[in-house]
Amino acid sequence: MLPDDGGVVLEGLPRVLRSINWVHVSQRFPVKIAVQNPDPALFRVGTSAVAKLRRDGLAHDNRT
Predict the structure, then answer these.
(1) 14 with 22: CB under 8 angstroms?
(2) pTM of the entire structure?
(3) What is the pLDDT of residues 2-48, one digit of tens each?
(4) Which residue among 22, 38, 54, 55 is the one 20 to 30 A from 8 at the CA level?
């Protein structure tokens, strides 16, 4: 696995060069999210998302 920017892979993870100031490398980590009954209009390749975790484990629909 090689990073797109031609950087170095250390300990299995690519070294990500910080090219934008609002996302710090230390704040980025991979996650897997399972979505039940996804709306195809909301999920497109290349888009970004914000995940909110709840302690009570209940789902919340923000579309209303």
Answers:
(1) no
(2) 0.28
(3) 445 555 666 666 666 666 666 555 566 677 777 788 888 877 777 77
(4) 22
